[in-house]
Specification:
The chain has 3 helices and 8 strands. It is of the alpha/beta class and about 140 residues long. It has 2 domains: about 60 residues, 2,3-Dihydroxybiphenyl 1,2-Dioxygenase, domain 1 (Roll); about 80 residues, 2,3-Dihydroxybiphenyl 1,2-Dioxygenase, domain 1. Strands 1-4-3-2 form a 4-stranded mixed beta sheet. The chain has a 4-stranded mixed beta sheet with strand order 5-8-7-6, covered by helices on one side. A hairpin with a 7-residue loop joins strand 2 and strand 3.
């Protein structure tokens, strides 16, 4: 298997509400004619929103589940100030700030918000993971 992630799809409770939330963050949809799902181009990885029950059905699993889901999505930025601004923007869009931004033990600055379906997003500035012009992270060896 090649070391590559191509698409992250979140199973959401209310697709229209989720789309409105990401619209409020300023995200632009792609593949706008795909019914019942929303796609966003996020650099080299695509991001999707799909009804939770339908995503569970597609995978052949129960749609039940709550609490910590065992992962967090991350949005890295170029400065500490951008972290604060992005957390504030997410809160205005309807997110819940779970952990305000603070200096991190690993040398950066980060905080967390939960989107409308409870998915955790880490918003971070990491001096060890520089971003190129397009926002792609470059991991050190």
């Amino acid at each position: 298997m090649e070391q590559r992630l191509t698409l992250v799809t979140l199973g959401v409770a209310d697709l229209d509400r989720a789309i409105a939330f990401y619209d409020a963050l300023g995200w632009q949809r792609s593949v706008k004619d795909a019914p019942g799902i929303a796609f966003y181009q996020t650099g080299s990885v695509a991001f999707g929103l799909y009804p939770r029950a339908e995503l569970a059905k597609d995978a052949g699993v129960s749609p039940d589940g709550s609490g910590f889901r065992g992962f967090a999505l991350a949005h890295n930025l170029r400065t500490r100030e951008e972290v604060d601004a992005t957390l504030a923007e997410a809160e205005v869009a309807g997110a819940t700030v779970i952990k305000p931004a603070e200096e991190a033990f690993w040398g950066g600055y980060s905080g967390y918000f939960a989107d409308l379906d409870g998915f955790l997003w880490e918003v971070a500035w990491n001096p060890g993971f520089p971003l190129d012009e397009d926002g792609a992270v470059t991991l050190p060896d």
